[in-house]
Amino acid sequence: MHVIHAEAVAASVQSAATLWAAVIAGGAAMLSAVLAAIAAHRSGRWTQREQWWQRFTWACERSTNPDPGQSEVGISVLTALISVPWASDDDSEMAVAVGNAIVTRVRATRSGDGGRARRILRRWSLA
Fold this sequence. Notes:
- The chain is mainly alpha-helical.
- The protein has one domain.
- The protein is about 80% helix and about 0% strand.
- The protein contains 4 helices and no strands.
- α2 (about 70-80) runs antiparallel to α3 (about 90-110) and α3 (about 90-110) runs antiparallel to α4 (about 115-125).
């Protein structure tokens, strides 16, 4: 008959408790790392969208400038902002709509420009 010593049982229970404590601590660390990664990703995405909005407003201001060179730079930046991956579909659609409105205004004010405003308008027909 086997005799189980109290010391052996106590050591076994202590080993199991230590193992479970390590597993729980490891799981908590993994969960914390995943949550931190998600938060960092969201923060980075928010920063990109905020920068997109700043560039968009800058480009709109430039696009409505009476100087044709400044206006062309603004239209070019608006065109580039449509295709950035962090802009939502709604943002891109808004950029196209605003761009078309700006081009329509430019076209009306530059009616004698030899078709330059029409070329800009065609470029905005990306959708």
